[in-house]
User: Which sequence fits this backbone?
């Protein structure tokens, strides 16, 4: 009877919205179950009630700032956040098609940021991000926003936009794909202080939460770790190489990644409620392709908005090299060609085998930043940077050639 009374008070428009949302969710599940789309690991995407809840929470947060007639747009953007963003590029179109047909339902798509005005927010793409309170933010012009980077930047921005609960974001991609640089750029642009923790196989929970130290008076006192400090003060934090961290470190993050955004300090028993300005980002290389990277559980991954980043296309990489390294386009083309040749060589021999020997875009940036004056210097700089990794004269000759 309570359901009947609730339904009687619900408008026909709300019934229609609920029906469309339900139909969209069921249709996405069917796409997954029928094997028509895949996740990044080649399996069936898991669209759970958490996905649906995130979509609705995003739409509700935006509608608190938007005219009600933009409800279809808010739902559409929420569906991209929760259902489309975690998918690889080759599986996105079927879900986007469902979202346009069922949620937009003939309504015109419009940029959300065009309808929200707030003096304490900064516009990034189609969304507004609350401005931070960092007193000194060093602006760097080395970051280049190429088309693929701009697309990823908007996906990250959608997760932390004004009106959201600043969802945790996991960026997964190959080495030197610009994962950490992108988050740092967003933090600088929006004036947020950002700190970074590099994970490894022996990372300890104390490196996150803190521990007891003896002060100058010989008295033990608890010193909070960087994660606790960031959560209290509303800083942003990047957890690099997340899938290298031990299980007990990941376990300590669970409550902070939930909607209540709380952090428990075992040594003191204190429960720290994260500041509304706090945002957590994580990066990792794909498991299986890089040594030591483990496959994280689906239950843990579902707490993040997963964003998969591919290697930068050659034309965009060339533009970045020309901008950051101030080298002519012909030099940039040669640099990229040599990288591909060495990667092919790596796959067929022992040259550059292993994590530290992989020739990445980061090597190219270092190479170009030396600003070679001619092709002879271009070749010599490559030899200085890359040949030191070789293990025998034959490998050095391969690089020289």
Assistant:
């Amino acid at each position: 009877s309570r359901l009947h009374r609730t339904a009687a008070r619900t408008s026909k428009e709300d019934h229609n919205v609920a029906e469309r949302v339900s139909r969209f969710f069921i249709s996405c599940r069917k796409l997954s179950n029928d094997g028509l789309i895949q996740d990044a690991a080649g399996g069936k995407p898991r669209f759970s009630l958490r996905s649906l809840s995130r979509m609705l929470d995003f739409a509700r947060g935006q509608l608190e700032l938007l005219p009600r007639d933009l409800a279809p747009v808010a739902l559409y953007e929420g569906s991209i956040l929760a259902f489309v963003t975690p998918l690889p590029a080759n599986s996105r179109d079927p879900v986007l098609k469902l979202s346009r047909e069922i949620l937009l339902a003939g309504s015109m798509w419009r940029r959300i940021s065009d309808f929200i005005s707030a003096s304490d927010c900064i516009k990034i793409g189609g969304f507004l991000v609350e401005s931070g309170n960092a007193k000194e933010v060093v602006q760097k012009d080395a970051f280049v926003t190429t088309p693929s980077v701009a697309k990823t930047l908007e996906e990250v921005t959608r997760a932390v936009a004004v009106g959201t609960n600043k969802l945790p974001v996991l960026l997964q991609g190959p080495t030197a794909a610009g994962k950490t640089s992108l988050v740092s750029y967003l933090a600088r642009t929006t004036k947020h202080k950002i700190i970074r923790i590099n994970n490894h196989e022996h990372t300890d929970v104390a490196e996150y939460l803190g521990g007891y130290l003896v002060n100058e008076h010989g008295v033990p006192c608890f010193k909070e770790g960087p994660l606790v400090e960031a959560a209290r003060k509303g800083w942003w934090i990047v957890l690099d190489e997340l899938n290298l961290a031990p299980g007990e470190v990941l376990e300590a993050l669970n409550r902070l990644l939930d909607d209540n955004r709380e952090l428990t300090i075992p040594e003191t028993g204190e429960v720290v409620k994260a500041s509304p300005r706090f945002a957590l980002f994580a990066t990792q290389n794909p498991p299986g392709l890089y040594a030591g990277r483990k496959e994280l559980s689906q239950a843990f991954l579902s707490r993040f908005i997963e964003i998969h980043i591919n290697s930068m296309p050659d034309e965009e990489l060339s533009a970045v090299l020309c901008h950051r390294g101030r080298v002519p386009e012909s030099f940039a083309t040669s640099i990229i060609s040599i990288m591909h040749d060495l990667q092919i060589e790596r796959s067929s021999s022992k040259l550059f085998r292993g994590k530290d020997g992989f020739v990445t875009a980061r090597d190219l940036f270092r190479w170009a930043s030396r600003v070679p004056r001619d092709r002879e210097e271009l070749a010599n700089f490559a030899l200085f940077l890359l040949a030191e990794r070789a293990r025998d004269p034959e490998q050095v000759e391969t690089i020289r050639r």
